[in-house]
Q: What sequence folds into this?
């Protein structure tokens, strides 16, 4: 962490308009309800106004529509997008540690492996024979890079990541702890003596600027490649099956499961715990709601939810109707009782 910033320095950093005392020192960022006098906070929307009125934050980033909200902190920094502004402040207050280089004595580098400039290999890292790491690759403790694996420039590989043979990773990729790339897919053919494993000889290809969260797994292809497109961000505990192809700039959230040979086009969002059956296409800019079960193709720009997944609006209407059933049953029972009494 760097030295605290004054409110006037924060305003200059984010291009905001300062109201109040510019000398207030801000050493951290905190939510409105937990911020103290030395913290910067931010008002993300009107629903948080009660917390804004009660906060003890030294200064608050807020949008023009809330600049006069009272009561609230006297020192305010007015910006069009408080969310984006706070990201810039966080980077200034908490810059990343300086890059390391060098090879720990306990690391193992296989025959014919190629290491780029300023590479760092942490304790007990294993680099397989014929693997290639680009410039400034940072490989942390216990990671295993298999034989022939190709790693690009400026890649960050956190502890205990495993890249199986047949994996290619682009530049500026971040792999969090426990990621497994290039694992054999779940492919079997029933035979007379049991389930026979299908050989997996395709690759696992990760594009540039991808980030993959902790303990997520991307299988290699069977006869085709499994591909994750440039700029896609994958959360923790996600499974991507063999032969899947994921486009660019997708967001795939925690516990999503994607069966083999699924095609996800560019700019798709898959919310948490969504499940996708195999051999289907989710077209560009589609949105899949949390815990949805997708069993068929999804058209471009569509928003779907529920199980089986269908148009989100239809799901909301059906859910609303279902919760009205209890009311309707009560009314019917009252009518029947009224009719019975009238007949007596």
A:
């Amino acid at each position: 962490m760097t030295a605290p910033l004054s409110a006037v320095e924060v305003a200059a950093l984010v291009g905001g308009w300062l109201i109040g005392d510019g000398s207030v020192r801000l050493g951290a960022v905190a939510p409105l309800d937990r911020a103290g006098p030395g913290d910067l906070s931010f008002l993300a929307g009107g629903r948080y106004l009660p917390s804004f009125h009660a906060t003890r934050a030294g200064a608050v980033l807020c949008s023009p529509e809330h600049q006069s909200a009272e009561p609230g902190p006297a020192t305010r920094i007015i910006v069009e997008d408080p969310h984006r502004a706070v990201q810039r402040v966080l980077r200034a207050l908490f810059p990343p540690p300086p890059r390391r280089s060098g090879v720990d004595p306990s690391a193992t580098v296989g025959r014919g492996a190629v290491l780029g400039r300023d590479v760092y290999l942490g304790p007990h890292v294993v680099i397989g024979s014929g693997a290639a790491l680009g410039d400034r690759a940072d490989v942390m403790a216990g990671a295993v890079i298999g034989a022939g694996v190709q790693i690009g420039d400026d890649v960050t590989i956190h502890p205990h990541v495993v890249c199986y043979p047949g994996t290619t990773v682009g530049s500026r990729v971040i792999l969090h702890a426990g990621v497994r790339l290039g694992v054999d897919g779940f492919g079997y053919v029933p035979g007379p003596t049991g389930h026979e494993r299908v050989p997996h000889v395709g690759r696992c290809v990760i594009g540039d600027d991808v980030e993959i969260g902790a303990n997520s797994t991307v299988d290699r292809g069977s006869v085709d490649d499994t591909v994750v497109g440039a700029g896609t961000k994958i959360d923790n505990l996600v499974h991507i099956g063999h032969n899947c192809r994921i486009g660019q700039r997708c967001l795939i959230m925690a516990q999503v499961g994607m069966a083999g040979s699924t095609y996800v086009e560019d700019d798709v969002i898959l919310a948490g715990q969504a499940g996708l059956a195999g051999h289907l296409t989710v077209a560009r800019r589609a949105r899949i709601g949390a815990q949805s079960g997708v069993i068929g193709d999804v058209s471009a720009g569509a928003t779907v939810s529920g199980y089986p997944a269908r148009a989100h609006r239809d799901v909301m209407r059906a859910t609303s109707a279902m919760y009205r059933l209890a009311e309707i049953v009560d009314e019917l029972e009252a009518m029947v009782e009224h009719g019975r009494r009238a007949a007596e």
